[in-house]
Amino acid sequence: MIKTRIIPALVAATAMTAMGGMLSGMATAAETEQHIEDVSFSYEGPFGKFDRFQLQRGFQVFHEVCSACHGLRYLSFRELGSETGPAFPEEQVKAIAALYEVADEEGEPGDTRPGKPFDNFPANTGAGAPDLSLMAKARAGFHGPYGLGINQLINGIGGAEYIYSLLTGYTGEEVEEAGAILYENTAFAGGKISMAPPLDEGLVEYAMHGGEEGQSGAKAPEASVEQMSEDVSAFLMWAAEPKMTERKQSGFRNIVWLAGLTVLLYFTNKALWAKVKRKE
Ligand code: HEC
Hints:
CATH superfamily of the largest domain: Cytochrome c-like domain
Helix content: 40-55%
Bound molecules: heme C
Number of domains: 2
Oligomer: single chain
Radius of gyration: 26 Å
CATH architecture of the largest domain: Orthogonal Bundle
């Protein structure tokens, strides 16, 4: 009786596993394997902080290259002056804001005016490119669903790694599909993206130095494709979560506080029950 029930169940289970295997096999054959490069960023780990010079360089790449097609509409210019972010001086934040045209609410619909620090970066939908403000979180799969929580804590959520891999993952091959040119890319799901490789060796001339704080004469790094990709990815990670450093710091304070409370409660508990225990 038991056997007659178990055997058909086993057969069904085996058949389903085999089918599942076939299906996933087909999927991998159709979509080329995505390759994501692991990059160690300064902000990873429980005490990691953004490297302000890297963020400044990353902003420069965004500004000079990516902003031609992509918006950054959830980030305000004022955030660029944040101490735990790029920490641009106030005057520079004002100057940067004024380089962007934003919607003028006081004028006719469609009117624009130069940006002010309290404005957000404009949206940019002209080229059909997605907004980048939350991209580093939206594509945070690398250490995310596949890794453990602790892995994310130590290595970050992986969105910046995805962007880095996308920017450095062009193979140079182009294909025409339904009249549009697609570019082969080893990081993009499906293997072909409509964004042309945006970066070229030396495309940006880094204006900001690359050194540690205090070494104001430090030389800016060479603008290789890898360097620019790393910098702009770090910048976009920061843009997606400008308060990451504060969050980590308050998280750490809370843990210390809770650890202290635990010790205190342990001894309080002992002291309270000591009398009762002695009587026995
Ligand atoms: C010439 C216009 C153009 C420029 C310049 C450009 N992009 Fe794109 N980008 C696009 C388009 C179009 C898409 C949508 C591609 C698609 O879905 O096939 C896209 C998509 C993306 C995506 C999303 C990929 C995904 O997983 O959906 C990221 C990330 C990205 N771009 C980053 C950048 C960065 C960083 C820069 C600057 C270094 C940049 N782009 C410069 C046009 C551009």
